[in-house]
Amino acid sequence: QGQLVESGGGSVQAGGSLRLSCTASGYTYSARRMGWFRQAPGKGREGVAVIYTLGGDTYYDDSVRGRFTISRDNAKNTVYLQMNNLKAEDTAMYYCAAGEIGGIWRFPRNYNYWGQGTQVTVSS
After folding, report:
1. What angle do CA 58, 88, 114 make, to 5 degrees?
2. pLDDT, tens digit, 9 for 90 and up, residues 84-121
């Protein structure tokens, strides 16, 4: 069992920055991978970024590569998503997820645990 708690969302103007945090409890922090997903109204949940526990490899969706950075602080059991140069299309509910299941990182079905989400709103 485990729990994921996100924080750091808010409202910002286009071009601004936010840093999301996801603090893990239980065994979730040692899961195979930790990912950030987002879901805009009327759309499906999409993978934004992932960081693997073994090796620390990271991968990004094309829409955020070069603007977002995923990282982790093992001492704090926390994964971060630094979001720079935000755009209106980044507006969504952002979720942290932990996964032990294999398969493609960007598919929500490959994650076992989810946080409650934190809202990010970018105004143009």
Report:
1. 45
2. 999 999 999 999 999 888 899 999 999 999 999 999 99
